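Give me the fold.
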Amino acid sequence: MTIRRITRRAFRRHPASPSPASSAIGALPVSPRSIRRDLHHAASAVVLAGPAVLLLLILYGLPTISVLVISLSDWRFGSTQLGFVGLSNFADVFSDPGFRASVANTITYVAIVLPGTAGLGLAIALLIESRSSLRALYRAVHFLPFMATLSAMAIAWDALLNPSVGLINLLLTSLGFSTVNWLNDDRTVLPVLAAIGIWQGLGYAMVLFMAGLKSIPAELYDAAAIDGADGWLDRLRTVTLPMLAPVTMFVVIVVALKAFQVFDIVQILTKGGPGHASDMLLYTLYRESFDYLRAGRGAAIAVIFLVIIVVLTLFQARFMDRKVHYL
Protein backbone atom coordinates (compact mmCIF):
# COMPACT_ATOMS: atom_id res chain seq x y z
CA MET A 1 0.00 0.00 0.00
CA THR A 2 1.42 3.34 -0.97
CA ILE A 3 1.92 6.28 1.37
CA ARG A 4 -0.66 8.32 -0.57
CA ARG A 5 -3.38 5.71 0.05
CA ILE A 6 -2.55 5.45 3.75
CA THR A 7 -2.73 9.22 4.13
CA ARG A 8 -6.04 9.37 2.26
CA ARG A 9 -7.60 6.69 4.51
CA ALA A 10 -6.39 8.47 7.63
CA PHE A 11 -8.04 11.68 6.56
CA ARG A 12 -11.29 9.85 5.81
CA ARG A 13 -11.37 8.27 9.28
CA HIS A 14 -10.30 11.43 11.13
CA PRO A 15 -11.36 14.49 9.16
CA ALA A 16 -9.74 17.74 10.16
CA SER A 17 -12.00 19.82 12.36
CA PRO A 18 -11.96 23.60 12.25
CA SER A 19 -10.06 25.33 14.96
CA PRO A 20 -12.02 27.03 17.76
CA ALA A 21 -10.57 30.42 16.84
CA SER A 22 -11.67 30.20 13.20
CA SER A 23 -15.11 28.95 14.25
CA ALA A 24 -15.49 31.81 16.67
CA ILE A 25 -14.40 34.36 14.08
CA GLY A 26 -16.75 32.95 11.48
CA ALA A 27 -19.62 32.90 13.94
CA LEU A 28 -19.21 36.53 14.97
CA PRO A 29 -22.04 38.57 13.48
CA VAL A 30 -21.39 41.99 11.97
CA SER A 31 -23.31 44.42 14.12
CA PRO A 32 -25.12 47.44 12.67
CA ARG A 33 -23.12 49.61 15.03
CA SER A 34 -19.79 48.52 13.52
CA ILE A 35 -21.18 49.11 10.02
CA ARG A 36 -22.27 52.62 10.99
CA ARG A 37 -18.85 53.26 12.51
CA ASP A 38 -17.07 52.17 9.32
CA LEU A 39 -19.37 54.30 7.19
CA HIS A 40 -18.75 57.26 9.51
CA HIS A 41 -14.99 56.82 9.19
CA ALA A 42 -15.22 56.58 5.40
CA ALA A 43 -17.42 59.68 5.23
CA SER A 44 -15.01 61.58 7.50
CA ALA A 45 -12.09 60.61 5.26
CA VAL A 46 -13.94 61.82 2.17
CA VAL A 47 -14.88 65.10 3.85
CA LEU A 48 -11.34 65.74 5.09
CA ALA A 49 -9.54 64.73 1.88
CA GLY A 50 -12.17 66.07 -0.53
CA PRO A 51 -11.12 69.76 -0.52
CA ALA A 52 -7.45 68.89 -1.08
CA VAL A 53 -8.27 66.46 -3.90
CA LEU A 54 -10.60 69.02 -5.48
CA LEU A 55 -7.93 71.71 -5.24
CA LEU A 56 -5.35 69.40 -6.86
CA LEU A 57 -7.76 68.65 -9.70
CA ILE A 58 -8.43 72.35 -10.25
CA LEU A 59 -4.77 73.41 -10.09
CA TYR A 60 -3.19 70.49 -11.94
CA GLY A 61 -5.80 68.29 -13.56
CA LEU A 62 -7.82 70.89 -15.45
CA PRO A 63 -4.77 72.79 -16.83
CA THR A 64 -3.21 69.52 -18.00
CA ILE A 65 -6.41 68.45 -19.75
CA SER A 66 -6.74 71.93 -21.30
CA VAL A 67 -3.19 71.79 -22.66
CA LEU A 68 -3.80 68.34 -24.14
CA VAL A 69 -6.98 69.54 -25.85
CA ILE A 70 -5.32 72.70 -27.22
CA SER A 71 -2.33 70.67 -28.50
CA LEU A 72 -4.73 68.72 -30.72
CA SER A 73 -6.41 71.84 -32.11
CA ASP A 74 -5.64 74.87 -34.27
CA TRP A 75 -6.75 77.37 -31.65
CA ARG A 76 -4.95 80.73 -31.49
CA PHE A 77 -5.06 83.39 -28.82
CA GLY A 78 -8.03 85.66 -29.42
CA SER A 79 -9.82 83.17 -31.66
CA THR A 80 -13.37 82.07 -30.88
CA GLN A 81 -13.11 78.85 -32.91
CA LEU A 82 -11.35 75.63 -32.07
CA GLY A 83 -10.84 72.98 -34.72
CA PHE A 84 -9.47 69.48 -34.19
CA VAL A 85 -6.26 68.87 -36.18
CA GLY A 86 -5.03 65.64 -34.57
CA LEU A 87 -1.28 65.27 -34.23
CA SER A 88 -0.37 67.84 -36.88
CA ASN A 89 0.92 70.28 -34.24
CA PHE A 90 3.32 67.62 -32.95
CA ALA A 91 4.44 66.84 -36.51
CA ASP A 92 5.09 70.53 -37.16
CA VAL A 93 7.02 70.87 -33.92
CA PHE A 94 9.27 67.87 -34.55
CA SER A 95 9.97 69.03 -38.12
CA ASP A 96 10.98 72.51 -36.93
CA PRO A 97 14.80 72.97 -36.82
CA GLY A 98 14.39 75.59 -34.11
CA PHE A 99 12.63 73.12 -31.82
CA ARG A 100 15.29 70.47 -32.40
CA ALA A 101 17.97 73.04 -31.61
CA SER A 102 16.18 74.01 -28.39
CA VAL A 103 16.00 70.35 -27.30
CA ALA A 104 19.72 69.87 -27.98
CA ASN A 105 20.59 73.11 -26.17
CA THR A 106 18.45 72.18 -23.17
CA ILE A 107 20.06 68.75 -22.88
CA THR A 108 23.53 70.30 -23.17
CA TYR A 109 22.64 72.90 -20.55
CA VAL A 110 21.39 70.22 -18.13
CA ALA A 111 24.47 68.07 -18.81
CA ILE A 112 26.68 70.99 -17.71
CA VAL A 113 24.60 72.39 -14.85
CA LEU A 114 23.70 69.09 -13.15
CA PRO A 115 27.19 67.70 -12.42
CA GLY A 116 28.60 71.20 -11.91
CA THR A 117 26.03 72.15 -9.29
CA ALA A 118 26.03 68.80 -7.47
CA GLY A 119 29.80 68.36 -7.59
CA LEU A 120 30.72 71.90 -6.52
CA GLY A 121 27.96 71.91 -3.90
CA LEU A 122 29.36 68.76 -2.34
CA ALA A 123 32.94 70.05 -2.50
CA ILE A 124 32.04 73.36 -0.84
CA ALA A 125 29.99 71.57 1.83
CA LEU A 126 32.96 69.33 2.63
CA LEU A 127 35.31 72.30 2.80
CA ILE A 128 33.01 74.29 5.09
CA GLU A 129 32.43 71.30 7.39
CA SER A 130 36.18 70.72 7.61
CA ARG A 131 36.71 74.20 9.07
CA SER A 132 35.87 75.18 12.63
CA SER A 133 35.46 78.94 12.15
CA LEU A 134 33.33 81.28 10.01
CA ARG A 135 30.99 78.50 8.92
CA ALA A 136 27.93 80.73 9.10
CA LEU A 137 29.61 83.37 6.93
CA TYR A 138 30.61 80.87 4.26
CA ARG A 139 27.13 79.36 4.23
CA ALA A 140 25.50 82.76 3.84
CA VAL A 141 27.88 83.87 1.07
CA HIS A 142 27.29 80.75 -1.01
CA PHE A 143 23.54 80.60 -0.34
CA LEU A 144 22.89 84.26 -1.22
CA PRO A 145 22.67 83.75 -5.03
CA PHE A 146 19.92 81.18 -4.56
CA MET A 147 17.88 83.61 -2.46
CA ALA A 148 18.28 86.50 -4.90
CA THR A 149 15.84 87.07 -7.75
CA LEU A 150 17.32 85.54 -10.88
CA SER A 151 15.89 88.30 -13.08
CA ALA A 152 17.79 90.94 -11.12
CA MET A 153 20.91 88.80 -11.09
CA ALA A 154 20.63 88.33 -14.87
CA ILE A 155 20.75 92.11 -15.33
CA ALA A 156 23.87 92.21 -13.15
CA TRP A 157 25.44 89.45 -15.23
CA ASP A 158 24.57 91.34 -18.40
CA ALA A 159 26.57 94.29 -17.10
CA LEU A 160 29.49 92.06 -16.10
CA LEU A 161 29.55 90.36 -19.53
CA ASN A 162 29.26 93.54 -21.59
CA PRO A 163 31.78 93.29 -24.46
CA SER A 164 32.91 96.94 -24.07
CA VAL A 165 32.67 98.00 -20.43
CA GLY A 166 32.02 94.71 -18.66
CA LEU A 167 34.17 93.93 -15.65
CA ILE A 168 35.15 90.50 -17.00
CA ASN A 169 36.41 91.88 -20.31
CA LEU A 170 38.20 94.73 -18.54
CA LEU A 171 39.97 92.13 -16.41
CA LEU A 172 40.92 90.14 -19.52
CA THR A 173 42.26 93.29 -21.19
CA SER A 174 44.38 94.15 -18.14
CA LEU A 175 45.87 90.66 -18.30
CA GLY A 176 46.73 91.04 -21.98
CA PHE A 177 43.92 88.94 -23.45
CA SER A 178 41.46 90.02 -26.11
CA THR A 179 37.84 90.77 -25.21
CA VAL A 180 35.08 88.23 -25.81
CA ASN A 181 31.50 88.92 -26.81
CA TRP A 182 30.21 86.33 -24.38
CA LEU A 183 26.48 86.50 -25.12
CA ASN A 184 26.65 87.04 -28.88
CA ASP A 185 29.05 84.24 -29.78
CA ASP A 186 27.45 80.85 -30.42
CA ARG A 187 30.58 79.15 -29.04
CA THR A 188 30.40 80.81 -25.62
CA VAL A 189 26.76 81.71 -25.01
CA LEU A 190 25.61 78.28 -23.81
CA PRO A 191 28.57 77.66 -21.46
CA VAL A 192 28.07 81.16 -20.01
CA LEU A 193 24.38 80.50 -19.35
CA ALA A 194 25.30 77.17 -17.76
CA ALA A 195 27.88 78.88 -15.54
CA ILE A 196 25.20 81.33 -14.37
CA GLY A 197 22.88 78.40 -13.65
CA ILE A 198 25.56 76.66 -11.59
CA TRP A 199 26.29 79.87 -9.70
CA GLN A 200 22.61 80.34 -8.91
CA GLY A 201 21.92 76.77 -7.68
CA LEU A 202 25.22 76.11 -5.94
CA GLY A 203 24.09 77.36 -2.53
CA TYR A 204 20.97 75.18 -2.51
CA ALA A 205 22.97 72.01 -3.20
CA MET A 206 25.57 73.05 -0.62
CA VAL A 207 22.97 73.46 2.15
CA LEU A 208 21.43 70.06 1.41
CA PHE A 209 24.81 68.32 1.42
CA MET A 210 25.77 70.03 4.67
CA ALA A 211 22.57 68.76 6.28
CA GLY A 212 23.40 65.28 5.02
CA LEU A 213 26.94 65.47 6.38
CA LYS A 214 25.67 66.41 9.85
CA SER A 215 23.40 63.35 9.89
CA ILE A 216 26.27 60.86 9.40
CA PRO A 217 27.15 59.23 12.76
CA ALA A 218 30.73 59.76 13.90
CA GLU A 219 30.89 56.06 14.86
CA LEU A 220 30.98 55.15 11.19
CA TYR A 221 34.17 57.14 10.68
CA ASP A 222 35.69 55.50 13.77
CA ALA A 223 34.80 52.06 12.45
CA ALA A 224 36.25 52.94 9.05
CA ALA A 225 39.47 54.10 10.72
CA ILE A 226 39.72 50.79 12.58
CA ASP A 227 39.29 48.96 9.27
CA GLY A 228 42.18 50.91 7.76
CA ALA A 229 40.43 53.89 6.10
CA ASP A 230 42.78 56.52 7.52
CA GLY A 231 42.97 59.00 4.64
CA TRP A 232 40.27 61.52 3.82
CA LEU A 233 39.79 59.98 0.38
CA ASP A 234 39.18 56.54 1.89
CA ARG A 235 36.68 57.97 4.38
CA LEU A 236 34.95 59.86 1.57
CA ARG A 237 34.70 56.75 -0.59
CA THR A 238 33.69 54.24 2.10
CA VAL A 239 31.53 56.33 4.46
CA THR A 240 30.61 59.82 3.26
CA LEU A 241 29.44 59.18 -0.29
CA PRO A 242 27.42 56.02 0.51
CA MET A 243 25.70 57.74 3.43
CA LEU A 244 24.98 60.82 1.31
CA ALA A 245 23.23 58.76 -1.36
CA PRO A 246 19.65 59.81 -0.35
CA VAL A 247 20.63 63.48 -0.32
CA THR A 248 22.49 63.09 -3.60
CA MET A 249 19.44 61.53 -5.24
CA PHE A 250 17.26 64.41 -4.07
CA VAL A 251 19.79 67.03 -5.22
CA VAL A 252 20.19 65.44 -8.65
CA ILE A 253 16.43 65.28 -9.26
CA VAL A 254 15.74 68.82 -8.07
CA VAL A 255 18.69 70.38 -9.92
CA ALA A 256 17.83 68.51 -13.13
CA LEU A 257 14.20 69.64 -13.00
CA LYS A 258 15.22 73.23 -12.34
CA ALA A 259 17.76 73.13 -15.16
CA PHE A 260 15.14 71.88 -17.60
CA GLN A 261 12.94 74.82 -16.59
CA VAL A 262 15.51 77.51 -17.43
CA PHE A 263 13.80 80.56 -18.89
CA ASP A 264 14.62 83.80 -17.06
CA ILE A 265 18.24 84.21 -18.07
CA VAL A 266 17.48 83.29 -21.69
CA GLN A 267 14.65 85.81 -21.89
CA ILE A 268 16.68 88.63 -20.32
CA LEU A 269 20.18 88.00 -21.67
CA THR A 270 19.97 86.38 -25.10
CA LYS A 271 16.34 85.85 -26.25
CA GLY A 272 17.48 82.58 -27.78
CA GLY A 273 20.26 84.10 -29.85
CA PRO A 274 22.54 84.35 -31.61
CA GLY A 275 20.43 82.38 -34.07
CA HIS A 276 19.19 79.39 -32.10
CA ALA A 277 22.41 78.96 -30.11
CA SER A 278 20.73 79.57 -26.72
CA ASP A 279 17.18 78.47 -27.47
CA MET A 280 15.69 76.41 -24.64
CA LEU A 281 12.51 74.37 -24.50
CA LEU A 282 10.57 76.77 -22.27
CA TYR A 283 11.67 79.79 -24.27
CA THR A 284 10.59 78.10 -27.51
CA LEU A 285 7.23 77.35 -25.86
CA TYR A 286 6.92 81.01 -24.82
CA ARG A 287 7.82 82.31 -28.26
CA GLU A 288 5.41 79.99 -30.08
CA SER A 289 2.55 80.80 -27.70
CA PHE A 290 2.93 84.53 -27.03
CA ASP A 291 5.11 85.96 -29.81
CA TYR A 292 3.69 84.00 -32.75
CA LEU A 293 0.30 83.38 -31.04
CA ARG A 294 0.35 79.73 -32.15
CA ALA A 295 -1.22 78.27 -29.04
CA GLY A 296 -1.63 74.79 -30.55
CA ARG A 297 2.09 74.41 -31.24
CA GLY A 298 2.93 75.92 -27.87
CA ALA A 299 0.64 73.42 -26.15
CA ALA A 300 2.27 70.58 -28.12
CA ILE A 301 5.70 71.71 -26.87
CA ALA A 302 4.28 71.86 -23.33
CA VAL A 303 3.06 68.26 -23.62
CA ILE A 304 6.47 67.13 -24.90
CA PHE A 305 8.17 69.02 -22.08
CA LEU A 306 5.87 67.38 -19.51
CA VAL A 307 6.63 63.91 -20.88
CA ILE A 308 10.38 64.59 -20.77
CA ILE A 309 10.19 65.76 -17.15
CA VAL A 310 8.11 62.76 -16.02
CA VAL A 311 10.35 60.25 -17.80
CA LEU A 312 13.50 61.91 -16.45
CA THR A 313 12.19 61.94 -12.87
CA LEU A 314 11.11 58.29 -12.97
CA PHE A 315 14.40 57.21 -14.55
CA GLN A 316 16.53 59.09 -12.03
CA ALA A 317 14.49 57.88 -9.06
CA ARG A 318 14.61 54.23 -10.15
CA PHE A 319 18.24 54.25 -11.26
CA MET A 320 19.63 56.07 -8.24
CA ASP A 321 17.42 54.28 -5.71
CA ARG A 322 19.46 51.13 -6.35
CA LYS A 323 22.54 52.88 -4.99
CA VAL A 324 20.88 54.58 -2.02
CA HIS A 325 21.91 53.52 1.49
CA TYR A 326 19.61 54.63 4.32
CA LEU A 327 20.72 54.88 7.90
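The chain has two domains: 33-71, 88-321.
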